[in-house]
Amino acid sequence: MTEARLRTFVAVADTGSVRAAAERLYVTESAVSAAVTALARELGVALVERVGRGLRLTPAGQVYAGYARRVLGLLEQGRAAARGEADPGHGSLRLAAVTTAADQVLPRLLAGFRARWPGLALELAVGPSREVWGRLADHEADLVLGGRPPAGIPATVLAVRANDLVVVAAPAVAAAFALDTTPWVMREPGSGTRVTAEAYLAERDARPPELVLGSNGAVIAGAAAGLGAALVSRDAVGAELADGRLQVIDAPGTPLHRPWHAVAGPAPTATTRLFVDHLLAAPGWHHPPPFDPAAFRGP
Fold first, then answer.
1. What is the pLDDT of residues 120-131, one digit of tens each?
2. What is the pLDDT of residues 101-113, one digit of tens each?
3. Are 200 and 179 in contact, with CB atoms under 8 Å apart?
4. Beta bridge partners of 160
5. How far is the C-alpha of 286 from the C-alpha of 288, rounded, in Å?
6. How many helices (H) and strands (E) does the chain have?
7. Domain for residue 214, yes or no?
8. How far apart are CA 130 and CA 134, in angstroms?
9. What is residue 294's predicted lDDT score, i.e. its pLDDT?
10. What are the HTH lysR-type domain coordinates in residue numbering (predicted)?
């Protein structure tokens, strides 16, 4: 059960075909088939099954793929930890960030960090909340920038930064805004901002029409074009507010305070801590407050 076989199986699981997996890994299709067959033989269960001209994972294969991703992520994390411990400035750092943080918070931070540590290998994955927290859980990311980490994921909050969510709309829409009737422009499923917007409306028993767009940028552009109101990070709409394309609506209960969190696994690598030190030296970032158990108790 070699690392190469695990990577091959995960490539098949991700792409859904032997040909696509072979193209991703720069190997032959026969090599992919042989690796998956050998892995299934070692496990004693079928991992894939034919469906027409394609294939799909068996139930056993679906379960095993999750473990395989975590094992591969942990191996990579171990390599990064060893290299970083020996020389943090020449280690590697795998960042993952939700879209708004990647667009509005990270660029200047990364530029300064890269200028200071040019010998460091840096990767950045950007996606909705569900995806980036999944990367942390599967050991595919050393540090995540997003909202509060969800329950059930082993996580260490290393730094926080204020972030306010506000309701915005084009001036004409803002002037006639009504919580229950004005259309809302929403993020895609899996977005933390969408979950927050849905919870905000549900708490107020409001059921406005919704238009789902595919990215944070599309939501902002749609709101500026007059498609409806949107709940967004104030960080993401500074230019639109400044030039008058959007206005902040004085919606009940807003702004919502949803700080950015820089989150690692239980044992952050030396290189991860190097980046966190860089964060904490930047304006607005600070150490997380002490844990208060009372804040998590029910009434």
1. 889 999 988 888
2. 888 889 889 999 9
3. no
4. 261, 286
5. 6
6. 12, 14
7. yes
8. 6
9. 41
10. 1-58
DSSP assignment string, 57-76: E-HHHHHHHHHHHHHHHHHH
SS3 of 94, please?
strand
Runs of H (alpha helix) within the chain = 3-15, 18-25, 29-43, 59-86, 99-100, 106-116, 129-137, 171-175, 192-203, 216-224, 238-242, 270-280
Q: How far, in Å, CA of 107 to CA of 111, rounded?
A: 6
Which tokens in the block code for residue 137? 């859980």
Same domain for 141 and 270, yes or no, is yes
Q: Which residues contact 59 (CB under 8 A, 6 or more apart)?
A: none
| Buried b / exposed e along 26-65 (16+ C-beta atoms within 10 A) | ebeeeebbebbeebbeeeeeebbeeeeeebebeeebeebb
Predicted model pTM: 0.70
Task: Write out the residue range of the structural domain in which residue 49 sits.
Answer: 3-57
Taking the C-alpha atoms of residue 159 and residue 279, their distance in angstroms, rounded to an integer, is 7
From residue 288, alpha-carbon distances to 139, 152, 156, 161 in Å are: 22, 19, 10, 9
Whether the link from the prior residue into 128 is cis, omega within 30° of 0, is no
For residue 68, being part of any structural domain is answered with no
- Quote the CA–CA distance of 42 and 169 in Å, as a whole number: 58
Say what angle helices 18-25 and 3-15 make with each other, to 10 degrees: 130
